Every structure is written in C-alpha cells, then in structure tokens.
Amino acid sequence: QVQLVESGGGLVQPGESLNLSCVASGFNFNLYNVVWFRQSPGKERELVAAINGAGRSIYIPESVKGRFSVSSDNVKQTVHLQMNSLKPEDTAAYYCSVVANGRRYWGQGTQVTVSS
Predict the structure, then answer these.
(1) In terms of C-beta density within 10 A (0-12 exposed, 13-18 middle, 19 or more buried), how is residue 7 classed?
(2) What are the φ/ψ torsions at residue 103 (nearest 5 degrees)?
(3) Dihedral (CA of 28, 30, 33, 39) sign
(4) In whole angstroms, what is the distance from residue 16 CA to residue 48 CA?
C-alpha cells in the first residue's frame, strides 16, 4: 500500500534552515508528482512545493520562492524540502502527499516551529 513518511521537522530560530524528508513506498515513484503542503491552526492548507516523477521541481509558490526548494532521490524514493531563511510564519505541520490509485495519500506530517 502507499505509504509516505515525513521527518526532519523541529524547533529552529528565525533565519535558520531545515531539510524535510518524505520517504515513499507502495507506488511507482518515477510516475507520480509528489507535493508538500503545510497547515497551521486557523489557516488554510497551503501547497508549498511540487516535484514530478522525473525529479524536476514543478511548482514553488511566491510565498516561499527563493527560500524553499524541492528535490528527490528516485533511487531512495525520497523527496526533500529544503527550507532556508525560515520565518515565524513558516511555523506549521508539513505533509507530503501523492495522488495515486485514484485517491490522495498523506503522510503523518512533521512539525516545524520557527521561534526565537
């Protein structure tokens, strides 16, 4: 079955960096787009990065462009979200997700807290 497992979150100070990982299994990683979303209490879920099966970044929204980047290791079936120059407003739970077999799958999420 499809599984997505995120890791790498934590508590950091403003201006610091984090690299989140999403390990995928149960589907042909080379054929699907994987996306990262984030959600914080009281806010709508926001898409922050998307990467295609060939390992090309296909979407980074203006809100994080220049600070966030996405990459993948297709051998390890892992997608990375590199987050630099973090701001308090980046505080959220971060989820990776894929649409496969006619439905959307989610990981359990990893919490990122940016605070001084």
Answers:
(1) middle
(2) -150, 165
(3) positive
(4) 18
The predicted model gives 11-38 an average pLDDT of: 95
Which of 66, 57, 60, 74 minimizes the C-alpha distance to 22? 74
Cβ neighbours, 10 Å, residue 35:
21
Split at pLDDT 50, 70, 90, the class of 55 is confident
Mean pLDDT, residues 50-67 taken together: 92
| Cα distance between residue 37 and residue 49, in whole Å | 7
Give the C-alpha separation, 116 to 113, whole Å.
Answer: 10
Count Cα neighbours of 113 within 13 Å in the Cβ-side half-sphere.
6
Q: Alpha-carbon distance 22 to 88, whole Å?
A: 22
For the chain, the distance separating the N- and C-terminal CA atoms, rounded to the nearest angstrom, is 40
The Cα-based distances of 55 to 18, 31, 113 in angstroms read 20, 10, 27
